[in-house]
Amino acid sequence: MRKGTDLQHLWRDHVDERLALEAREFTREHVAPVADALDRDDRYPLNLVRLTADRGWNSMTLDPRYGGEGRPMTELLAVLEELSVASAILGISLITIFQSQRCIELYGEESLKERYLPRYAGGLPASFALTEDGHGSDIRTLDTKAHRTDKGWVLNGEKAFITSGAAAELFVVLAETDVGVSTFAVTKDTPGVSSYQGHEAETFGLRNGPHVNLVLEDVEVPADHLIGTEGRGLKQVMVTLANSRTLAAGISLGIARAAFEGALKYVDTRSAFGTKVLDFQGIQWYFAELAAQIDATRLLTYEAARDLDAGRDIARSSSSAKLLAASLATKVASTAVQVCGAHGTRETQPFGRYLRDAKAYEVAGGSAEVLKNTVAKSLVKAVRVEDR
Ligand SMILES: Cc1cc2nc3c(=O)[nH]c(=O)nc-3n(C[C@H](O)[C@H](O)[C@H](O)COP(=O)(O)OP(=O)(O)OC[C@H]3O[C@@H](n4cnc5c(N)ncnc54)[C@H](O)[C@@H]3O)c2cc1C
């Protein structure tokens, strides 16, 4: 007899079933009870982030030399998917932790890795700060500047829309130097670092504490806080984002599953014209089509994570996974509201939250258009190599 939510048997486990069950039980006990309040209050889930760290999930894929678990990406994906069935807010809180950690792990100097990476196992909240008011999709040039000094680097500028920024103690920041954009590790307590929640900081979805503007005023960091090679920042963030897009797709799939299951349960209780709403074939077809699409998108997403674990190029597969998962989550959440009728629009119900979180993730972490550009680029490259 399988444990878990009543409807769990709908979805195949793509990793060790025990891990999925553990994440599911954690979600039911700790996440589901606070999910609506986190969204309503636009609050960073610090307690939950500490609890997930206790389970080893905040540094699950990190090399054990730095206090991590050294587990495959597919397992982290499974955990984030399960957590996000209850709260995409917790999902994105863990994704910014992953992004900053992975960028340092892949490109940082040994001294930098030893200094910061072990702190993730203790629940270090962290952010990945690329965007500025004038630079979103296009971050090839930036208004945030860094210049070299005798002792290291000095950064000046302002980043915008920074998820988890309300609580972050460490920021991976993209800034422009003389030779192009570069990434830097900056701690919250460095003199000259401040943040504020601008009057436009609140978003309607993925609300884990209003997104902050991160202000850097003559911020001095040591030389090894330049992550990797000067001028290679764009490549580094593209690789880091390609890695994290598999997880982003998992978060969207969590939202899709939650909306699907919530609506399916409701229409099986609701009656109209002397029958259960679920017995109308027109309603069943919605669910049949969405279930097929969720299954297919999950397969693609786990395949992208497996590609990553196998060291294969994932630019295309992770972009395709996020592209499909994000738009599918919006479609499922929207359909869930539709089939639930007025009940689906109630503020006391989570369907509005699902819809808002799903839509926000069609923009955050790589918009649909930018993801299509990435997929298209790999297709063009493939056909031109073939032609040679
Ligand atoms: C909820 C949320 C959380 C976020 N968290 C973070 C964070 O933690 N860190 C961070 O750095 N940023 C964060 N962002 C910012 C996010 O990364 C940007 O919103 C995103 O990169 C798009 O940039 P933009 O909003 O400036 O849109 P723009 O770049 O102004 O684009 C506007 C429209 O044009 C389209 N477009 C742009 N370029 C092209 C192109 N070449 N071809 C076709 N269409 C194009 C876009 O897809 C979009 O539809 C977050 C955003 C949201 C909504």
Layout of helices and strands:
Elements: H1 17-31, H2 35-41, H3 46-54, H4 73-86, H5 88-107, H6 110-120, E1 126-129, E2 145-148, E3 152-162, E4 170-177, E5 180-187, E6 193-196, E7 212-222, E8 226-227, H7 233-267, E9 271-272, E10 275-276, H8 281-309, H9 315-340, H10 351-360, H11 368-387
Parallel strand pairs: 1-4
Antiparallel strand pairs: 2-3, 3-7, 4-5, 5-8, 6-7, 9-10
Helix pairs in contact: 1-4, 4-5, 4-7, 5-6, 5-7, 7-8, 7-9, 7-10, 8-9, 9-10, 9-11
This protein binds flavin-adenine dinucleotide.
Please summarize what this structure is.
It contains 11 helices and 10 strands.
Describe the structure.
The protein is of the alpha+beta class and 388 residues long. It has 3 domains: 8-120, Butyryl-Coa Dehydrogenase, subunit A, domain 1; 126-230, Butyryl-CoA Dehydrogenase, subunit A, domain 2 (Beta Barrel), CATH 2.40.110; 234-382, Butyryl-CoA Dehydrogenase, subunit A, domain 3, CATH 1.20.140. Helix content is 51%, strand content 14%. It contains 11 helices and 10 strands. The chain has helices at residues 17-31, 35-41, 46-54, 73-86, 88-107, 110-120, 233-267, 281-309, 315-340, 351-360, 368-387; strands spanning 126-129, 145-148, 152-162, 170-177, 180-187, 193-196, 212-222, 226-227, 271-272, 275-276. The strands form 3 sheets. The chain has a 4-stranded mixed sheet. A 4-stranded antiparallel sheet has the order 2-3-7-6, with no helix packed on it. A hairpin with a 2-residue loop joins strand 4 and strand 5. Helix 4 crosses helix 7 (233-267). It starts with 16 loop residues before the first helix and ends with a helix. The model has no long low-confidence stretch (mean pLDDT 95). The structure holds flavin-adenine dinucleotide. The site of flavin-adenine dinucleotide has 21 residues, from strand 1, strand 3 and helix 11. Keywords: FAD, Flavoprotein, Oxidoreductase. Pfam families: Acyl-CoA_dh_1, Acyl-CoA_dh_M, Acyl-CoA_dh_N. Residues 18-123 form the Acyl-CoA dehydrogenase/oxidase N-terminal domain.
